[in-house]
Amino acid sequence: PFDPIVKDGYFIARGCQDNKSSAIIALYALKYMKEHNIFPQHTMEVYLGTWEEQGMYDIDYFLEHYQAPALSLVPDSGFPVCLGERGSFDGELTCNWPCSTEGIEIVCDCSVYPIPGNVTLRVPFTEELWEKCRQEKEASDTENGLGVWAERVDNKIVITAQGISTQASNPSKGKNALSMLAGYVCERELFGAPEQSAFAFIKDINKDNNGTALQVNCEDELSGPINLVATRLRLKEGHFAIDFASKYPITKNDFPFEESAAKAACERGFTLKVTRFSKANYFNPDRPEVQILTQVSNEVLERTDTPFVMSGGTYARKLGGNGVAFGPVFPGQENVIHQKDEYITIEHLMKNVEIMAHAIHRLGLYTL
């Protein structure tokens, strides 16, 4: 729901886990310190942005006009503390040949960064195409309301793929409706070469999500293999365009992503445009701040967790080595970010305030 609901100790609302709860947690942590006359050695401030999932241009503006803090806690991850974030390599692949099917329409229900849960393809009705769509195939399994199906609506054939949306940084947690549609189209050979090549490219990119189709597969011990997923298909000036998002390993900032992917795209009849390249960041695990944050988290939660790296991106990556992601998600907690009925409990919020207040107090006793 876009209108928040409070029920049985739960907040249920869009963004309540990511990241509106974080803003509330930060404000209440400072309120607690003020009311209990706790005065750190350092000036403290809360700064909030609203463009974090659209390129983080707000934090770029902030850093251009204000001095970066000596240390920033970014509550956009999990506990005990996130030491590093994979880099982002996102792009647009445009087919070199114009679409030959007039009247074709395609709608994906997402931006670039989540995988789509629903994709709809509309094409002009022909008997030949309708007969292909009516063929029974194993790929169009509709168990639990998921799958791909076609119906005739007036003079159009409407093909709908229903999957499960989730973050593109962890596609295995969902079911990519665009991949499902691509498999459906390819299996039935519904179109001619230009259109078919786009669906085949999507199918190959999302086959393993490790960048092989774009020749950018790489990995390291810290973060594992690259994750790359096609998330959108659209028409751009009469040509099919595929949008993809990727999270690459922390130690691979110097990998020739653009050069390799452009070559692979050219071989498939596509042109690459890089839409975002954000380098991976890594916070030195030996710094005292890491030890303090880890200790506070483990004390309050009564756990023995260790720092970690993640695929998601936060403002920490923009802060020049002086930012770490810290909370609000507990280890093992269900991830409902960007999902229907996204929720967080009031108890969870209170525990986060406790952790954050303790962390700020401990860090205030340490000279940065």
Identify low-pLDDT runs. none
Rg from alpha-carbon coordinates: 23 Å
Number of helices: 8
Shape: elongated
Helix content: 25-40%
Q: Structural class, from secondary structure content?
A: alpha+beta
Distance between the termini: 42 Å
- Arithmetic mean pLDDT: 91
The strand count comes to 22
Largest pleated sheet: 4 strands, antiparallel
| Spatial ordering of strands, largest sheet | 15-16-6-17
Write the element-wise H/E pattern from the N-terminal end onward: EEHHEEEEEEEHEEEHHEEEEHEEHEEEEH
Strand content: 25-35%
Describe the protein in words:
- This protein has 368 residues and is an alpha+beta fold.
- Helices cover 30% and strands 27% of the residues.
- The chain is built from 8 helices and 22 strands.
- The protein has helices spanning 16-35, 57-65, 127-134, 177-188, 193-208, 257-267, 288-301, 346-364; strands at 5-7, 10-12, 72-74, 77-78, 82-85, 87-95, 105-108, 114-115, 118-124, 147-153, 156-162, 166-167, 219-220, 224-225, 227-236, 239-248, 270-278, 281-282, 308-310, 323-325, 328-329, 343-345.
- The strands form 8 sheets. The chain has a 4-stranded antiparallel beta sheet with strand order 15-16-6-17, with helices on one face. The protein has a 4-stranded antiparallel beta sheet with strand order 7-9-11-10.
- Strand 15 (227-236) and strand 16 form a beta hairpin.
- Helix 1 (16-35) crosses helix 8, helix 4 crosses helix 5 (193-208) and helix 7 packs antiparallel against helix 8.
- The longest helix has 20 residues, at 16-35.
- It is elongated.
